[in-house]
């Protein structure tokens, strides 16, 4: 069995490209149905990451799984962005495990230490588990990954400093003001990251959150979140009401100079206003000319990342050490499981020899003598087996399974299928 992770993230595809696979919730079930060798699959789909974690039988290689995922994505999402498909890549086995642990710790997020990713990973695992899409190996993998994520959060300051991009961006825009009571906020975008932004704004007690979407999804988004939908043609009116704007649509420029000045012409005058705009889109939702307006202060995602990541080099290294320890511990346990068949075969081989000798003793000696011999033989067999069984487990943990298998065959004639 092998672990293969097929996916794409914010570094290899834009947010809009990632958003084009939004309806792909059925991907895990489809690839499992199409390829029986895929025994289990867990889909992690967020605003800046789309990854399918698979447990695959021997004989089906990583490229086969990658090609299958591409085909199924095209079938599920006919409008999928070609850049999304082009960005798909696959990692396998130890590299895949290390990748998942690193993701879970928040070390591959746009803002390193992002507190949202662990919850996203846990929900993805729980969803797959409820659907019966997790193998025993995937259960162990995700349990270990989430345990390591909690260890990073609790034993390093990355857990305390790591924040979502929304939180850091709002801190910069409001100059650290955590309480937004009395503030009307305009949210541009309705993707998965918009949910994070809403949660952050609600926690800061924003007076009202208006939501506008170029795709017209604001009413649908508002049905499930604490926002007031803004009709498609009312962006200018909403800008007039807003005291703070947060954009995360990922669909290219949606807020240009003309639109801003149509709503707030006073922003063109120097030192008249201080209108904060937080642009959390990788592609950039706010035109560069908007940032040149004297009355507008644009906080870009690059600033957010620099602020969050710039002073954390030592903390990041510390978190990476915790992750590496978790990876080594998980891999050692998985390798040791491969020793179970060898240990069982060795134990069975010795037990058969002992049972045969006890049977001969019972046939020749009195019950009292035979009982004493049986006790001695079983005790001696247990003592003799202890060290070989421990050594087999240790060697298999070191990746020497094949050597141990050959040794049992050579020394005892025990054949164990790997």
From TrEMBL:
Q: Where is this site: Important for activity?
A: 99
Going by the record, the broad EC class of this enzyme is: oxidoreductase
Which SUPFAM superfamilies does this chain map to? Glutamyl tRNA-reductase catalytic, N-terminal domain (SSF69742), Glutamyl tRNA-reductase dimerization domain (SSF69075), NAD(P)-binding Rossmann-fold domains (SSF51735)
Keyword check for Transferase, yes or no. Answer: no
* Metabolic or biological pathway, per its Swiss-Prot or TrEMBL entry: Porphyrin-containing compound metabolism; protoporphyrin-IX biosynthesis; 5-aminolevulinate from L-glutamyl-tRNA(Glu): step 1/2
Q: Which PANTHER family match?
A: GLUTAMYL-TRNA REDUCTASE (PTHR43013:SF1)
Q: What additional remark is attached to this entry?
A: During catalysis, the active site Cys acts as a nucleophile attacking the alpha-carbonyl group of tRNA-bound glutamate with the formation of a thioester intermediate between enzyme and glutamate, and the concomitant release of tRNA(Glu). The thioester intermediate is finally reduced by direct hydride transfer from NADPH, to form the product GSA.
- Provide the domain comment: Possesses an unusual extended V-shaped dimeric structure with each monomer consisting of three distinct domains arranged along a curved 'spinal' alpha-helix. The N-terminal catalytic domain specifically recognizes the glutamate moiety of the substrate. The second domain is the NADPH-binding domain, and the third C-terminal domain is responsible for dimerization.
Described function: Catalyzes the NADPH-dependent reduction of glutamyl-tRNA(Glu) to glutamate 1-semialdehyde (GSA).
Name used for this protein in its record:
Glutamyl-tRNA reductase
Organism per entry: Propionibacterium cyclohexanicum
